[in-house]
Amino acid sequence: MNSKIKVISKVARNNLQLDLIKSLIIESQKIKNNIEKYREFIFLNFFNEEQVLKYEKFMNLEYDLSLSLQDRRDRILYRLLSKQIFSPANLKEQARIFTNGEIEVTEVFNEYYFIIKFTSIYGIPPNLNNFINFINFIELNKPAHLGYKIVYSYMTWDEFDRYNKTWDTWDLLNLNWDDIEKYKE
Prior knowledge:
The chain is extended, with a radius of gyration of 26 Å. The protein has nine helices and three strands; from the N terminus they run αααααββαβααα. By secondary structure, the chain is of the alpha+beta class. It has helices spanning 2-6, 15-42, 49-58, 69-81, 88-99, 128-141, 157-162, 167-172, 177-181, and strands at residues 103-108, 113-122, 147-153. The chain has a three-stranded mixed sheet with strand order 1-2-3, with helices on one face. Helix 3 (49-58) runs parallel beside helix 4 (69-81), helix 4 runs parallel beside helix 6 and helix 5 (88-99) packs antiparallel against helix 6.
């Protein structure tokens, strides 16, 4: 508070000015506290258990004890975002939310299906519950006449060779074959 008062020149400094600055500091602190207090009611990412439960009831989502609070927030976000038009851009956004990964969408118009290929993740995405929610999102929102395929990426022999590691070096990493297939530096 003294630093704020020192900004005012000594000539202008008087009790009225000092009281004004002190009251402004107190009020600004109250405003900051109110913002912190209400952000859990306004922003989905800050919802507490009580807020999440209210939204789950409102959206007719089943209460699932096996899900973490963050997974439940993600499920609410997924439901809110699923009201958009189903498009490759929307699908890419949902993949980023659910799997923390990037995808490539290839539409095969003449055969009425599309291909989803994970480009930033090797293997099946690590958070299986969110991945299942992503698949549910696809089923819920894709047009009924379209099929889809999901393509997972694994390390190819060419990628394996590009690491320029000997078998002894790979052995020192202590990885099983599944881990080697998903390995990224």
